[in-house]
Design brief:
The structure holds 3 protein chains of 3 kinds. By secondary structure, chain A is mostly helical. In chain A, helix 4 packs across helix 7 and helix 10 runs antiparallel to helix 13. Chain A has 13 helices and 2 strands. Chain A is globular. Chain A has a single domain, classed as MetI-like fold. By secondary structure, chain B is mainly α. Chain B is 68% helix and 0% strand. The two termini of chain B are 27 Å apart. Chain C has 2 domains: 230 residues, P-loop containing nucleotide triphosphate hydrolases (Rossmann fold, 3-Layer(aba) Sandwich); 102 residues, OB fold (Dihydrolipoamide Acetyltransferase, E2P) (Beta Barrel). The chains are: A mainly alpha, B mainly alpha, C alpha+beta. Chains in contact: A-B, B-C.
Chain lengths: 293, 279, 350
């Protein structure tokens, strides 16, 4: 956990951790506790009337079809984003692994989505799929597919999934490439000598050996889809049509800041916190074994 | 390269080119759209090749045509926020990591776990109450309010901790014998030896800070404090008529250019830092 | 040049005592070697003198001044580490100048000192290079340069040659010893290599599990070991230990016996010690089968198995010998060089 060697100054370490601890207390711990507390209250928007209602907010959510749907929707959304994004990234990484020339250029281009803000990514895809002007609906129309994600909820969901997956491809790609590079060349050469073709080698050697990375990315992608995609939803659909693209984090924002249901929104925050904690614990316990405590 | 099958290489390259083209397509479309005038962008099909209005549109944008906040202001706000977040986070994390690794003090483990907790609480999960705290401190519509809640999370601290653990113990002892106080050691030895990590983290955090959306959205009401990334949404909601796509796309281009440039020019350091820090 | 005194030095980690009361008095300019197997506490002891480990009880005095509570930099010591501990981002010059800069020495004085020491160690041409561009031996010299440049009262070496290849180690051994004699600085040198210890030390401290088993000059320790541990640790190849029964008439080892020499008065079940180089090849009191032969070029080691004896007896003889594995071989002890140890306490009784 720590080094063998230490300094023994009494006050200096406290001074050094103070900024982080203070900010953590003020802007992490305290708000988290507040959220927890508020989730047990029923308040009006002006804070004039507060009532302690124990778990009512939570049971209300549990009973609310709206919330349950949002839950399922978010799960569906994140799994789709993860699968689509990781699938493409893996494909690109496997190919990039085979070619030597130009791999730097490919990588440079593939990194770009990482630098694009989610809301900007949403804007780009919105533009591409704009029902009246977008270039994609134009071509879809030629094969008689009518595109209007403002009306069609599955199209809306597909669009946000595509936009979210597009943005994550870079991150996944970089990690897959690094993972493949860390496989000893001798293993692959031995398999080739044994007669395994590239596809077979990929299936039986490369893919199993990068599984820690795959698992790690799965967790990261799910966390990403849960939390970092707010901008995409806000830019493209605003949660609509109806609620069809209202994922959990969007709902917290909507119910809290727009609908002013403070207790309900706080309860949702608490549930989200719980989900993140579980996901992060999974990530650390099973994946990042290198971090010792 | 194992088998020398030129066919496979050719196919691989072809598929890769197609794939990369697919990924870069939205960016391309954006650049094209930013180079045409408003009229052309109301005619279907939209162009796939650039026009000649690029500089005209750019000038239009910077002359502040019809937006709530002039673009040079929003760019400035974005820059300030991104720098405060990246520099701020690096500074407080590196000194925390130094304290935790090199000092034995009471509550050390307690602080360690507290910092670890923050890994699990992205801002999206505590938006309402954090907003309240900022509001109560009167920090709405300030650079501080934009940045400070985002700088305490633990990833940087853990990354530095990992780096420090690889610095040999004997180095610290040699410096003690040479007469260096802990802070001397920190500035003269630890920081120079962490240079690449600091650079990589800076890239990652700068992009993270620049691209913030939800938090600035909540914390700013004064249009003069809007960030460039936020301002896109306003432009999309122009109400009655079809949005001015040529200007929106130009804004989007300008908004995403700094992070893209940073990533491309610091590519090597960035990739290494990203994949190293998470492993 | 300073004296060092360690009085009843003890060290515990939590409740476990690892150094059990060490007493050593070191003269000015002496080259003292702390030697012992891994885990015996030699590095810990060194670090306690340096100020890098706290002292649980007892005193360390440098020049008759108690230094227990002083920071390393205030003790007037310099240390050379096993892994050199050179600042990787600084040039050789900067590495050597670092401590002096912290002492707020004027720039020209720093330059003079660094240049002088660089000349002494023949590393002038490397002054502007980074450590990563140097070989192991060069790095070691830079580490020494950094130590010398501080003009300390005491040099401390913590296994500095362990990371070098054998040939380099021999070269550096000589260099360090010559340098120390020239500079006449009191030195404590830690090593697990007993050849290093024997060749470099003015006096040796043999450490075993946190106690000083014996302190003395190399030859004293070689000729006059206090117990079985010291006898077996110093001297290569190691001393042979044979269980035996001593009576008035004979010393019996297994099934074989030799006459008890007149000057041996100890009796009973004892451990006999005899070094491989102290055998008499011409006589033939004892015999055994040759189990293995190690040809070292300058001499040959024979591993002889005597009946009823587990351990082979190791005999050193000339390379001219044409003994083969499986041969029956006869030999005798050099009776002047016998040692006897108590079976239980392992103390030397003769």
């Amino acid at each position: 956990m720590h080094k063998r060697v230490h300094y023994n100054t009494s006050y200096l370490p406290y001074l050094l951790v103070a900024p982080q601890i203070i900010i953590t207390l003020l802007f992490f711990i305290w708000p988290a506790v507040q959220a927890l507390y508020q989730s047990f209250l029923l308040e009006d928007a002006f804070g004039l009337y507060t009532e302690f209602v124990w778990f009512d907010n939570f049971t209300e959510l549990y009973d609310s079809e709206n919330y349950l749907n949002s839950f399922i929707r978010t799960a569906f959304f994140s799994v789709s984003v993860a699968a689509l994004s990781m699938g493409f990234a893996l494909f690109f990484a496997a190919l990039a692994d085979r070619v030597i020339k130009g791999s730097h250029t490919y990588r440079t281009l593939l990194i770009i989505p990482y630098a694009v803000a989610p809301v900007l990514a949403g804007t780009l895809w919105l533009f591409l799929f704009n029902p009246t002007l977008g270039i994609i609906p134009y071509f879809l129309d030629m094969v008689s597919i009518d595109w209007n994600h403002k009306l069609n909820s599955s199209q809306a969901m597909s669009l946000v999934i595509i936009a979210a997956a597009w943005k994550q491809v870079s991150y996944n790609f970089l990690f897959f490439v690094a993972a493949m590079h860390s496989i000893p060349k001798s293993l692959i050469e031995a398999a080739a000598i044994d007669g395994a073709g590239p596809l077979h080698r990929f299936r039986t050697i490369i893919f199993p050996l990068i599984s820690p990375t795959t698992f790690f990315l799965l967790v990261v992608n799910i966390i990403y889809a849960f939390f970092d995609t707010f901008g995409i939803i806000h830019a493209i659909t605003g949660g609509g049509p109806g609620n069809s693209t209202e994922i959990l984090v969007y709902k917290v924002f909507n119910d809290g800041f727009v609908g002013l249901d403070l207790g309900g929104s706080a309860a949702q925050s608490v549930i989200l916190m719980f989900i993140v904690i579980v996901l992060t614990v999974v990530q650390f316990k099973y994946v990042e074994r290198k971090v010792e405590y | 390269m194992i088998e020398n099958r030129p066919m496979t290489t050719f196919v691989s390259h072809t598929v890769l080119i197609l794939g990369v083209a697919l990924i870069v397509f939205p960016i391309w479309v954006m650049v094209v759209a930013a180079s045409h005038d408003a009229l052309r962008l109301t005619q279907v099909p939209l162009p796939l090749l650039p026009g000649n209005q690029f500089w005209v549109n750019l000038k239009l944008l910077f002359s502040g045509q019809g937006f709530s906040a002039p673009i040079h202001l929003t760019l400035l706000n974005s820059l300030a926020m991104a720098l405060m977040i990246s520099v701020g986070k690096i500074v407080i994390s590196i000194i925390s990591a130094f304290a935790i690794v090199y000092f034995k003090f009471r509550f050390r483990m307690f602080f360690f776990w507290m910092i670890f907790l923050t890994l699990m609480l992205p801002v999206e999960v505590r938006i309402l109450p954090t907003y309240e705290v900022i509001a109560n401190f009167g920090m709405l519509d300030t650079y501080a309010g934009l940045s400070i809640p985002l700088i305490a999370s633990a990833t940087a601290t853990f990354m530095f901790r990992q780096t420090f653990m690889t610095i040999s113990d004997e180095l610290m002892e040699a410096s003690r014998i040479d007469g260096a106080s802990p802070m001397r050691f920190f500035f003269d030895v630890v920081i120079p030896m962490s240079r690449t990590n600091i650079a990589a983290l800076f890239v990652i955090l700068f992009i993270f800070g620049w691209n913030q959306y939800l938090w600035p959205l909540l914390v700013t009401t004064d249009p003069d404090m809007y960030t460039v990334v936020m301002s896109i949404k306003q432009m999309l909601e122009s109400g009655e008529s079809e949005p001015k796509w040529h200007l929106i796309m130009m804004t989007a281009l300008v908004a995403m250019l700094p992070p893209i440039l940073v990533v491309i020019f610091m590519q090597k350091i960035f990739v290494k830092g990203l994949t190293d820090s998470e492993k | 040049m300073s004296t060092i005194n360690m009085q009843q030095l003890k060290k515990s980690y939590q409740d476990i005592e690892v150094i059990h009361g060490i007493n050593i008095d070191i003269e000015e300019g002496e080259f003292i070697v702390l030697v012992g197997p891994s885990g015996c506490g030699k590095s810990t002891l060194l670090r306690m003198v340096a100020g890098l480990e706290s002292i649980t009880s007892g005193e360390v005095k440098i020049d008759d001044k108690v230094v227990n509570d002083l920071e390393p930099k205030d003790r007037g010591i310099s240390m050379v580490f096993q892994n050199y501990a050179l600042y990787p981002h600084m040039t050789v010059y900067e590495n050597m100048a670092y401590g002096l800069k912290l002492m707020k020495m004027p720039k020209d004085e720093i330059d003079n000192r660094v240049q002088d020491v660089a000349k002494l160690l023949q590393i002038q041409e490397y002054l502007q290079r980074r450590p990563s561009k140097l070989s192991g031996g060069q790095r070691q010299r830079v580490a020494m340069g950094r130590a010398i440049v501080r003009d300390p009262k005491v040099f401390l070496f913590d296994e500095p040659l362990s990371n070098l290849d054998a040939k380099l180690r021999v070269q550096m051994r000589m260099q360090i010893k010559t340098l120390q004699q020239k500079l006449a600085v009191t030195t404590i040198y830690v090593t697990h290599d007993q050849v290093e210890a024997m060749t470099m030390a003015d006096r040796l401290v043999v450490l075993n599990n946190g106690i000083a088993a014996q302190i003395g000059t190399p030859m004293e320790i070689y000729d006059d070991p206090k117990d079985q541990f010291v006898a077996g640790f110093i001297g290569s190849p190691a001393m042979n230990f044979l269980d035996c029964q001593v009576s008035d008439k004979s010393i019996t080892i297994g099934q074989q016996s030799i006459a008890t020499p007149a000057h041996v008065n100890q009796r009973g079940k004892l451990v006999l010690g005899i070094r491989p180089e102290h055998f008499n090849q011409s006589a033939s009191d004892l015999q055994g089968t040759v189990q293995m032969i190690e040809k070292l070029g300058s001499n040959v080691l024979l591993y002889i198995k005597m009946e009823n004896s587990e351990q082979p007896v190791v005999i050193q003889c000339d390379s001219q010998s044409d003994v083969k594995i499986g041969d029956k071989h006869t030999f005798s002890f050099n009776l002047e060089r016998l040692y006897f140890f108590d079976t239980n306490t392992q103390q030397r009784i003769y």
